[in-house]
Write a structure and sequence with these properties.
- It contains six helices and five strands; from the N terminus they run H-H-H-H-E-E-E-E-H-E-H.
- The protein is of the alpha+beta class.
- The protein has a three-stranded mixed sheet with strand order 4-3-5, with no helix packed on it. A two-stranded antiparallel sheet has the order 1-2.
- The longest helix has 14 residues, at 4-17.
- The radius of gyration is 17 Å and the shape is globular.
- 21% of the residues are buried.
- The chain binds zinc ion (3 copies).
- Residues 76, 87-89, 96, 99, 112 line the site of one zinc ion.
Length: 150
């Protein structure tokens, strides 16, 4: 994994380029997500910051920061578990697309992948035929990773 400071610098630059700011609190929460390298809830993040960085941050602030990180595609919210993870494309500048997540039910390892546009198109048109409009196409798929399967 790329060094945390390299990622934080990159994110700070991306923020500036977009006319936004990686404030101290935003940086703290992102650092915690990078450091933990797994999905954490807002309350997990409050504890994590205290435990690992001796920083006190309110849950409300964490939620606001997570909204920001999600909107800027630096992090993702897993809707099923209500936890957040760093975007695996955090260092990329290309178009992000719709993510899908493979979640190992044994070790909680999460792999992020972009859904192929053709699959998305198929899904959307199938939904349309059923009189349904997809507004949130992110997929969260449970399974077992190769390491846990043995
Ligand atoms: Zn992503
Ligand atoms: Zn990428
Ligand atoms: Zn596993």
């Amino acid at each position: 994994m790329t060094e945390i400071n390299v990622i934080l610098d990159h994110v700070a630059e991306s923020c500036t380029a977009r006319g936004k700011q990686l404030t101290t609190k935003r940086k703290l929460v992102l650092k915690a997500l990078l450091h933990a390298d797994k999905a954490l809830s807002a309350y997990d993040l409050v504890d994590y910051c205290k435990e690992h960085f001796e920083e006190t941050i309110q849950a409300m602030t964490v939620y606001r920061v997570l909204d920001f990180l999600e909107n800027e595609h630096f992090a993702h919210k897993l809707k099923v578990s209500n936890k957040y993870i760093m975007c695996s494309h955090i260092l990329c500048d290309h178009d992000h697309g719709t993510p899908q997540f493979f979640i190992c039910s044994k070790c909680d390892k999460i792999t992020e992948q972009t859904i192929a546009p053709i699959i998305m198109t198929g899904l959307q048109s199938q939904a349309k035929q059923k009189g349904f409009t997809v507004t949130q196409p992110q997929l969260e798929i449970s399974g077992v990773c190769d390491e846990c399967v043995n």
